[in-house]
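Appendix B. Raw example, untouched.
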Amino acid sequence: MRRTDHSRPRRRTLMLAAAAVLAVPAVAVPAAVAAEPSSSSASSTEAADLPSGNTAYRTLADYEADMAALVADHPDLVEPITLPYPTTSGRTVRGIEITTNVQANDGKPVFVDVGMHHGNEFPSGELTMEFAIDLVERAAAGDPYVTNLLDRARVVVVPVVNVDGFVRGRRQTDTNTDMNRNYGLGWLPIPTGGAAPWSEPETRNMEWLLSTRQAVVFNTQHTCIQVVLYPPLQLEAGPAQDVARLHTLASEIAAIYGPGYDALPSAEDYETTGEAIDWAYYATRGLSITTETCPDSGVARTYQTQVLDVYDEHREAMFTALETAADPEQYAVIDGKGPKGAVLRITKSFDMYTSPHLQPDGGTRPTSFTTTLESDLTIDNRNGKFEWAVNPSYRPIPAYQEDGVRGFQTGFYEEPWILTCELPDGTVLQTVPVDVDLGETATVDLKECRREFHRARP
């Protein structure tokens, strides 16, 4: 197994994977996962080559205990997230945020990493959780490479997004919906697509997560083929506007996992609709990828081959994703000077569309839905200066439109961020539209806010 020394930053190079994708069926359900409580971490005393020392798959209780322990042991580096919507069966979906001085609302660029859209793809949750533990332990030990990255970027981890499916050891949610066919952009009413776009609380949780954080990179971890995918999901949509950036990141990650891995648009693997990465990219312009890991053809799928044997490569791949999120060329910046203690908020709302489908009135047309992006920052510097890493205000035009699918779009919507400067109680003191593109910086003039803030808070 290849090991990588992350004691200092390494230069990232573009490497293209050349081998064919291996199409293999989903992983079998370990018997231990079907019941929630039994602890895997206590089931073996054998040392394992993982940050946690685990040698078997976690239960839901294990995941929640591991995240709670990271929060309790490292409150300066880790804080908990509770996603807003309980699952169909009433379970809570939990995650964590990791960065230096984690409680500061400081506007760092964000890497969002999630596992188990499909509840029976157990290695996807394990790899996601282990990377979180690895990051925190290395930062706590003073690893300069990791400390530097966490000084510059924030990592959001949700190891199990489909909690009901995981507990039952099956792909779908408890409404028998594949949540990775339920995202609104390009959605179709296929048998596992859900009753309507965004019908599932699990999918709405992910909508909330990515709508409230400026995710420069979003990775959804899966099994079990050897491929790294990026938008679009359908061939008639044509290439994404940022195909070069998407392919560069996917290719680097694929090459790290090994020569059998490929990087390609999701539609070239197989066509589908309503997946996370399409909506995430076309709504936010964040680099959105699906990373699938799997043993080589003919190798048995065990905890050893799917988690232990791949973790060193997975760690390097996720460091590459985090480095990309921290790269100023991959996001935009809003900066300026405002009153210390003020809250800055950026918002934008816009309509998006499903694929055309049969409507209750008998017609065939797309269904519209509104996406609202909203993030905030608190000005903490005594001198009032701030620098906020955001996704560009220029949003790629998707193929899915009000009148149907119009593929091969090359342009961007020029939709400014609407920035408000507010008192902590939400009173708006100034509103400024901000246009800023990839790699650019927009400086905002907040004189009015400074004046009104001091009048309101003498």
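End of appendix B.
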